[in-house]
């Protein structure tokens, strides 16, 4: 997972890049809207369990950053 310099047109939150079963997708965890690299539109939604897994990964990453001196 990698945070990009662009923002979601709906939530205005940072877009992220993920590897979704070997396919690179760019999108927003909050809106669950995703597209392929180079696409001008976010056009697909991931299954809820995949979005939850991304959210859990993001939460764990933030906790680790908070406890690192």
Summarize this, please?
The chain has a four-stranded antiparallel β-sheet with strand order 1-2-3-4, with no helix packed on it. The protein is α+β, with helices and mostly antiparallel strands. It has one helix and four strands.
Fold and architecture overview:
There is one protein chain. The protein is α+β, with helices and mostly antiparallel strands. It has one domain. Helix content is 29%, strand content 33%. The protein contains one helix and four strands, in the order E-E-E-E-H. The chain has one helix spanning 48-67; strands at 2-7, 14-20, 23-28, 33-36. The protein has a four-stranded antiparallel β-sheet, with no helix packed on it. The longest helix has 20 residues, at 48-67. The radius of gyration is 12 Å and the shape is globular. The model has no long low-confidence stretch (mean pLDDT 84).
Shape by Cα distribution: globular
Helix coverage percent? 25-40%
Distance between the termini: 23 Å
What's the number of extended β-strand segments? Answer: 4
Radius of gyration: 12 Å
Our count of helices gives 1
Low-confidence residue ranges: none
Q: How are the strands of the largest sheet arranged?
A: 1-2-3-4
N-to-C SSE string, H for helix and E for strand = EEEEH
Mean pLDDT: 84
Residue share in β-strands: 25-35%
Output the structural class.
alpha+beta
Largest sheet: 4 strands, antiparallel
